[in-house]
TrEMBL record:
The modification Phosphohistidine is found at residue 65. Residues 155-271, 466-584 form the Response regulatory domain. Residues 19-124 form the HPt domain. Residues 311-444 form the GGDEF domain. SMART domains: GGDEF (SM00267), REC (SM00448). This is Diguanylate cyclase. Signal peptide: none annotated. InterPro entries: CheY-like_superfamily (IPR011006), Diguanylate_Cyclase (IPR050469), GGDEF_dom (IPR000160), HPT_dom_sf (IPR036641), Nucleotide_cyclase (IPR029787), Rev_trsase/Diguanyl_cyclase (IPR043128), Sig_transdc_His_kin_Hpt_dom (IPR008207), Sig_transdc_resp-reg_receiver (IPR001789). The modification 4-aspartylphosphate is found at residues 204, 515. PANTHER family: DIGUANYLATE CYCLASE DGCM-RELATED, REGULATORY COMPONENTS OF SENSORY TRANSDUCTION SYSTEM. PROSITE patterns: GGDEF (PS50887), HPT (PS50894), RESPONSE_REGULATORY (PS50110). Keywords: Phosphoprotein. It comes from Paenibacillus plantarum. NCBIfam families: GGDEF.
Amino acid sequence: MSHRNIERAKDSASESDRDARILKQGKKLFIREYDKQLQQLQSLLTAVQMKPILEDLQQCYRIAHTLKGSAPVFGYIRIGKLAEDMVRKWEWTLAIEKPDNELLLSMSPVHESIERTDELLLELKMELDIGLTEIQLDEEKDPASGSMLRTLRSRILLVDDDDALRSYLTRRLQLDDCVVDEAADVESAKKLLREHTYDLVTLDLMMHPQSGYELFDFLKEDPTLKWLPLIVLSGRDDISDKVRCFHLGADDYVTKPFQYEELAARIYGLLKRTRNFEQLAFRDPLTGVFNRRYFDLQIGLELQRIERYPAPISLVFIDIDSFKNVNDTYGHHVGDLVLQGLAHLLQVNLRSTDLLARFGGEEFVIALPNTTVDQARSIMQDILDKVRMKPVAQNEGQTFSITFSAGVAEWQVGMTIAEWVAKADDAMYQAKQQGKNRIVLADLEDEGAQFTKLVAHANAQLQKKKLLIVDDDPILRAILISQLEHLPIVITQVSDGEAAWQLLSDQVFDACILDGILPGLDGFTILEKLKTDTNVRSKDLKVLMLSGKKKAADVAKGLLMGADDYMTKPFSLVELENRVKQLMKLI
């Protein structure tokens, strides 16, 4: 794989992790806001049963409309469907302009809407209970509650033809933060195994038309699946079955009926053991320190943190002096002992926050967060003095002493990782040229060059394009900002149409994400004012309209009134990000 493809893969993995964290945080915020909205709906329902005021009736519609649009964004599909049903029951209130409370009381839609909303509220409260339980389990740290599994966040395939048991296990494992797929037969399981990557499989033996034994051969003949952990779940407590399954490659055998907590503990044990093996993929097997693969992943994350919370960070590039002579004279086994000895000495003299990795051969790199280049040189000089003082390895009574050469470079604004590593590497080469056994600092830019770069960086910030997000749903605004904040843009948010229009009148924005239904001025009114008001400052503004209305007429209305793009709720966050990039000409 080329370096560019590797970088793209890293970026993709980082974006996936970021999206998962954002969605998880958004779900928690949504559920807490959802609880308040249900309480408000209950109060409104009580009020309108006594006296149907139009503003209260329309508020019922607005709450339902907000839930309909935002719930599916966070994965709460059932809540979204129930809210959609409620929206239909209150939509008639939008057509009333001059309320007559006596007339409203006699109108059949009021009674029908109240009655149906009463029914829907019961179901919505059940969904709230499930959501709150999920959050509680997610935050609970007691291992006995199953939280051990939640720390691993695994993908599990359940293969069982018992629909009730399969459904139960799926729900329980999902509450333990596992991603769960189900298969009712062997052929469905094979299809899923070809399409996805799993951390563990549970398998029922007694299934039709094929027994679970048919899956053993499929798993063990595929080199990509042969080490996949497998737990057999069987209603037969027969020793011959158990022995046969273990001979065929099962990792565990659980007899039905069983307690979920016991199964969860067995799953956790298997997954933990597997993860320990996977950890080795990030460790250099000879020295035990991190390898280059892990360093490449972590240093990118560290620089992202520094972009948010500026602080110095320095990189050290180390090369053992005359290491080839050690290998040639005493053999590679002594060379390996020397590498282990130096790695150990480095580790015990570094802070827990420092990142040490073997870069390859006799080369090591160290990232030192919150450390200037001068501080890094002092730290490395102390370590080099210790290396000089005593041997790092011993073999058959003979001791082996070494020295090393090191280059130190401090990260600077605008510097890529590759440039940073190259600077430290060049400084290490200068140390070799100057006689080895020393620490050399990378060439620093003079103050004028640094000032010029800082000014350029500040100007770049000022020149960033500006995005305005207008939506009365605080949870949706929060997740939109989290999804888009990594872009080179400045984001402003408001919750009502009047505030949005004031900002658009006073400031220049490049794009606006605009909700259709807003308190004060609605989104369509703002579009109309943008088209007719000659004093508005954002003359080249691009507008992405968000709406819960999916009818072709509503979409056409928004586009005809001046929207440059139109998305209906619920929507894909990835698709929304791409459309924002296109509107703001970021791609």
